[in-house]
Amino acid sequence: MEKFLRRFESFMDDFEIRKKLFILYIVCVILPLIVTDGFIIYFVVHSEQTERQHDMENIANAVQYNFTNSINNASGVARNIYMNKYINDFLGKEYENPLDYVTSYQEYFKSVLFDSGFGSDNIIVKMYSDNQTIVRGGKFGGLDEIIDSEWYQQLQLSETDKTIMFLYDKSKVPMVEAKRKIIFAQKMNFYNGDSFEKVLTVEIDYSSLVRNLVKMNYNMPVFVCNDKQILLSNEDYNSVGKNYQEFKFENRVGYRQDMSLYGMDFQIYILKPEMTMVSQMMNNMPLLIISLIVANIILPLVLVRGFNRSFTVRISELSDVFQKIDDERLVQIYDVRGQDEIGELMRNYNKMVNRINSLIETVYVGRMKEQEMMVARQNAELLALHSQINPHFLFNALESIRMHSIIKMEYETADMVERLAIMQRQYLEWGNDLVAIYQEMDFVKAYLELQKYRFGEKLSYSLEMEDSCRAYKIPKLTLVTFVENACVHGIESKSKPGWIFVRVFEKDETLCLEIEDTGHGMEEAQMKDLRMKMDYASIEMLQNKGRVGTVNACLRLKMHTNNQVRFHVEGEKGMGMVVQMYIPLKYV
Length: 588
Description:
Blueprint lengths: L1 H12 L3 H66 L2 H8 L5 H15 L1 H5 L4 E7 L10 E3 L7 H8 L4 E8 L9 E9 L10 E7 L1 H10 L6 E5 L2 E5 L19 E9 L2 E8 L5 H7 L1 H39 L1 E2 L2 E2 L10 H19 L4 H44 L3 H18 L5 E3 H19 L3 E7 L7 E3 L2 H14 L6 E10 L2 E8 L6 H12 L3 H4 L5 H13 L5 E7 L3 E9 L4
Parallel strand pairs: 1-2, 13-15
Antiparallel strand pairs: 1-5, 3-4, 4-5, 6-7, 6-9, 8-9, 10-11, 12-14, 15-16, 16-18, 17-18
């Protein structure tokens, strides 16, 4: 591996800086963008398709439930009549004359409350019999009226005594307009005491089924079919006065569900929406491609070219002056520009030239050492820049994850990633160990929100800070160290929910920091040991295991306040802990 790296470095050393920058641009920008954008597009499309498939399945189940429920309601009404002995006796009795029939009608149906027991706003019940002594009218008719009807023929051919049929009734045209009907028919053969054939029908209101389907407000087209015939739909295919239409959308079917009721097979088709996220992306593909080219290729290419010229032109000038030696004297650079490292290098070169030209014969060796020192310093500066770039890429990666979570509507995950980025930035930015209290409180809030994501309802917290204390500065991570202890050693160890209170206030020329928890608490011996560590925090203690975070925070407070900080700890086993820190205002 080491041999390969040496060969690679030697190979790259032969390339011009301009080519190296373009290679860096292609490998570190273009290729990662293509890969990440491809993965993002794939996951977005896959997620959208999965969610749409789940929605279509739920819609189909809901439609099947409502449709089956409506048919079963009609079946239930038919069953009640079918098993009603009064009605069967009434239809099977031979009457001497019409007056005898009317008298029996009034006598029987006053007691059974036929209309209130079996009637409904959405159904019409009618019974037929070949008993010639029955006066036809109302809910009763003769068998000869229906002998040639489609539903009666289907009932006779059915293997069971009941059937359901969707039909377009035009038998009474032109006296009555043709219209769609849903007929549930059943033979009345439960009681076989007479020789008459009896049949009952329950006509379901077609319009009510359509209204129920439309009211569901499904965001996808729904069709209930039988052998490619559209029976019901939430689209414009439900005109009662028109015959049933043929289903012609096989190429758009996203989900199909089959069901069977009373010898009749039904198909529920859910069509894919015409405009999905994928289709929108495809419709806007030219604009999307142009945007990606501009944002991911052209603009970075312009910047790389600018960086390239900024580097190579001035480095070439440096190279040229090193080659222009007049009487063994180095030539100065007269057009020094830029405030970056190369500009500084050019200015330093001029300083070096002035000194070397004056001491070239006496301090040649010293000049060589000075050059080596300058190169080392430049390398150190480049390493410093590199250490600044790494966190930059980390935060960019966290932001990419957060935006991807937002796209997938995982808002809770996006919020947690954002808080993690706040905490990570606080850890990395160590240019100054002091931080304003309001910034430290923001960091505490971010940490507690992350812990609340872990503990859920087990953890509650309250943050209080007086406005006069916002700008005071304390060593970084002072508060969060003790808040972390409260979470890990207090709330986590307790089975019941607990609270963490953080209070910052000013009293008697002293800044007071207070962290209280209602967690597991401590034994008195443990508390005594904690007080000792806080009061006598030292570098030596950091080498031991245990609460090194607490020792670290207390030691930095003692160093910052010239050992004027005071600590106070109280608590009780099973009840919780209170940690208080008092800092004179002149140190904040």
